[in-house]
Amino acid sequence: MRKLFLITLVSCISTAAMAQVSYGLKGGVNLGKFSEAFSDELKDYEKMNPSFYVTGFADIPVAPQFSIQPGLSLQGKGAKYEGEVNGTSGKITVNIMSLEIPVNAVYYIPAGTGNVFLGAGPYVGYALSGTYKSVVSGNDDASVEEDIDFSGDDKEANAFEAGLNFMGGYKLSNGFLINAGYGLGLTKIAADDDAPNYKNRVLSFGIGFQF
Asked: Where do the Outer membrane protein beta-barrel domain residues begin and end (predicted)?
């Protein structure tokens, strides 16, 4: 029994060592929003805030048709509120740029000349920068643009974030990727304990290549 176990263990290690680790790069459009508005008055004016993402990743096979994908990702997030009240139009835009480390479990399903893939996993992120911009049409005095503070005594937002990723798409036999995803933030953005408990929500669409 011990000999059989050792043979099996060596076989598994050899298989893992021979597994073809590949690398990829993907990017595209992010459509961000917050899980809830700053106030009840803004709920009816919520829009998706467009930004972008770029992700480099490694694809590590651990079983037939199953891989683990750690990566490093630059993610644009935020929210937007836009509308008209009493004849005056206005827009509020919050932009946050974060550096994230996702680790996704990915399952490949052969289809046609390529593979459909589905995946999910956790991520941790750190906000590199952020801006808040409020514009009132025809009234420059009421317009505001300022950086978001992520540290110090005037801290407005938490720099660290954690959440879950969900992804899906199609990988052609030549390595070209078509993918979509959804980022579900689980940690509060606002640093003030009395502020609304809003979190990031990001829908993404993009293309890439796996070498």
From this structure: 20-189
